[in-house]
Amino acid sequence: MENQQHQGRNGAAAAAPTAENRFSVLNCIDLSSPDTQNSVSLLKQACLDCGFFYVVNHGISQEFMAEVFAQSKKFFELPAKEKMKVLRNEKHRGYTPELDELLDPENQVHGDYKEGYYIGVEVPEDDPEAEKPFYGPNVWPSSEVLPGWRETMEKFHQQALEVARAVARIIALALDLEADFFDKPEMLGHPIAVMRLLHYGGQVSDPSKGLYGAGAHSDYGLITLLATDDVYGLQVRIRVNLRYLTSESNWFVRLVGIDLNFLQICKNKDAQPQVWEYVAPMQGAFVVNLGDMLERWSNCIFKSTLHRVLGNGQERYSIAYFAEPSHDCLVECLPTCKSEKNPPKFPPITCSTYLSQRYKDTHADLSVYNQKQQHT
To answer: Which InterPro entries match (predicted)?
Structure first.
């Protein structure tokens, strides 16, 4: 493949993926397939290999997905003053400005070059559950500013949760559990389930200078569903499943002549040096990756995977849906994943304890914004 260079907004060049960078293809899970055993086999292979895979025929129409992206773009195009009216609160609901999140402090000189918007399960303020971390009412832009915005996002949140539950049932079977294991009330029956709209601006990343769209990290929960626009962004190292490289898979060959943003993953997070590879977006599909809690549940049989975003000057929009269990769920080694020769590698921990620490470690203290407002 020709080694192309693309100019960012500030004139800096970013290289497109090349053959040397090994642009990889993920296993593809068809949620409409009646062949459950084949789906389990493909998912298990993907989880053992790299922790990333595609999900197609998931029940969310392409037309509605396009509407969600259009509404997301409308929010991020608002003036900064308007967006700051719905600034992230202590429950992690609402807007996160650029540089708010620092995911890889060892390698980043400052926060991520992205802005986001958190939306969770709606819990009324007078509900006793709202006293718990990550539970409570959402923060919404004014309906006068963005009419219909809340309704669109609430509908997508609910539909994405059903997709996450369907994927979790296949994961349960792959771990020799009952299919409905993760449907329990303390798991995905009454989950935390956080959706995050993301916007990467026109900045150019430079790992040698510690500049990233999003620093290297693994996700915290059970699984993450990622919906992307058509801007390339994911890098992984995986086996190609030729069965899915059909004539309809023209996204695979659209590699030359496109301005790119790179979402990258590292198959082996313990390797030194780390090897990063690229993965294409697939129209109409979710890219699914495993989170830290599933790694703990499975006793490292399935591992969460490092990923990061490198920008090259082109805007990029994505939507991440973090499927996480309930506040009080105890995450401990599954009975099918331990033995005398393979005892549990992690102590039990509640979901809220784990999430609270990870969010605290990676997000700016809200007092920073209060101080800025006092000086403006």
So the answer is: DIOX_N, IPNS-like_FE2OG_OXY, IPNS-like_sf, Oxoglu/Fe-dep_dioxygenase_dom
> What is the 8-class DSSP label of residue 92?
S
Q: Is the pLDDT of residue 221 over 60?
A: yes
**Closest listed residue to residue 320, CA positions, set 194, 167, 211:** 194
- In this structure, which amino acid lies at residue 222? L
Q: What is the pLDDT of residues 336-374, one digit of tens each?
A: 999 999 999 999 999 999 988 888 877 777 666 665 544
CA triplet 263, 44, 160: central angle to 5 degrees? 55
Task: Compute φ and ψ for 66, nearest 5 degrees.
Answer: -65, -35
CATH of the domain at 61: 2.60.120.330
CB neighbour burial string for 275-298, b if at least 16 within 10 angstroms, e if fewer: ebbbbbbbebbbbbbbbbbbbbbb
CB 274 within 8 A of CB 266: yes
Evaluate if residue 22 carries a pLDDT over 80.
Answer: no
From 127, 129, 133, 107, select the one nearest 354 (Cα to Cα).
133
Query: For 345-371, b where at least 16 C-beta lie within 10 A, e where not — what string?
Result: eeeebbbbebbeebeeebbeeeeeeee
Owning domain of residue 318: 5-374
Domain count, the chain: 1
Give the pTM.
Answer: 0.85
Distance CA 69, CA 82 (A): 19
